[in-house]
Design goal:
The chain has about 325 residues and is mainly alpha-helical. The protein is built from 14 helices and four strands. The protein has two domains: about 80 residues, no CATH class; about 170 residues, Telomere resolvase (hpI Integrase, Chain A, Orthogonal Bundle). The N and C termini lie far apart (about 65 Å).
């Protein structure tokens, strides 16, 4: 089944070769900063989905942003506002950029109900994953297909995809959110067979063949997933990370090794990822490198078990006291 997915993925990256060549030949036209290109991509997606047939002037952009605000989480609204302001500044519309930056979120200002986080599906069958890749291939969406393939094979966070490099059979993933006092997103070095590393190289090439923001990739994947699976529990990139966690649990890998592969710095973090009952041990194609440093992974499972036991004992004491009082 693994090689079936490989051939499906090859179809998805056929158009990527031409795309990569064009990007290399026109390198002077690309933005030097990843953030700048990501902002322009995010703004373009907003214009296409929220302002079709509307002139891109200051009032229309601000009006569209305010109308769309209830549909976004506050953090996404801030990122989108920054992207729109930067895009207008890049186009030479400095006044419009200044006014967009001043546009407050009506949801937070007026204390309106905020959009709730959608529950993330935590499992995805091989058949559904294969169908998702095939659909992306048919629509010539190599960036999205590449992202899905890399996450499914490495368990990387979506925000870590740009920080993955492959050297021979070694896969290095630069951890995300290392600024949080080192509590999240540990960097790690994994190993895999030559065939797996070859697929990962192709997948990374597909993912990087176009300058795209992670938000635009997420939106594109969401739209395809809705059409393919319906609106009930639409899978996303993090669904694959959850499934990867379930696969690790089924593989028999130790708690320390699983935490390292997932980029966690505590062994109990994986308890929030996936369900062992839905895991597929044969799908795990990577492992910690032979020289992996496990010293920074804290074994917090025993501590959590002790805390749970103490809480259970306290509850039993309360129950017994209640029985005595009632008696």
């Amino acid at each position: 089944m693994f090689w079936v997915l490989f051939f499906v993925f090859l179809i998805a990256i056929i158009g990527c070769v031409v795309c990569v060549t064009q990007n290399n030949n026109n390198k002077k036209n690309c933005m030097n900063a990843d953030t700048q290109s990501a902002y322009i991509s995010l703004a373009s997606n907003f214009y296409a989905t929220r302002m079709q047939g509307v002139e891109l002037d200051e009032l229309n952009i601000i009006g569209a942003l305010l109308r769309a605000a209830p549909d976004y989480r506050p953090d996404y609204y801030r990122r989108l506002r920054n992207a729109l302001a930067f895009d207008q500044k890049h186009r030479g519309n400095f006044w419009a950029a200044q006014e967009i930056n001043r546009t407050l979120n009506p949801v937070t200002v007026l204390n309106l109900p905020r959009k709730k986080k959608q529950p993330r599906p935590q499992k995805l069958s091989t058949a559904d994953f294969e169908a998702w890749l095939r659909c992306l291939a048919e629509r010539e969406m190599p960036v999205e297909a590449g992202a899905l393939m890399v996450i499914s094979l490495t368990g990387a966070r979506p925000c870590e995809l740009n920080g993955i490099s492959i050297d021979g059979r070694r896969i290095h993933i630069s951890g995300a959110k290392l600024s949080h006092n080192g509590l999240r997103g540990a960097s790690r070095t994994l190993e895999a067979e030559d065939g797996v590393c070859s697929i990962l190289r192709d997948a990374l090439a597909a993912f990087k063949c176009q300058p795209r923001s992670m938000d635009s990739i997420r939106v594109a994947l969401h739209q395809v997933a809705i059409e393919l699976f319906g609106r009930r529990k639409v899978p996303g990139m993090y669904t694959l990370r959850h499934q990867f966690g379930a696969n690790l649990k089924a593989s028999g890998m130790s708690a320390i090794e699983m935490a390292y592969v997932m980029g966690h710095q505590a062994t109990d973090s994986i308890s929030r990822y996936g369900d062992k009952r839905f895991g597929r041990a044969e799908a795990v194609k990577v492992k910690p490198a032979s020289d992996a440093d496990f010293s920074k992974v804290r074994d917090t499972v025993p501590a959590r078990m002790r805390a749970d036991a103490l809480a259970l004992n306290d509850q039993r004491d309360l129950d017994r006291r209640s029985e005595v009082a009632d008696g």
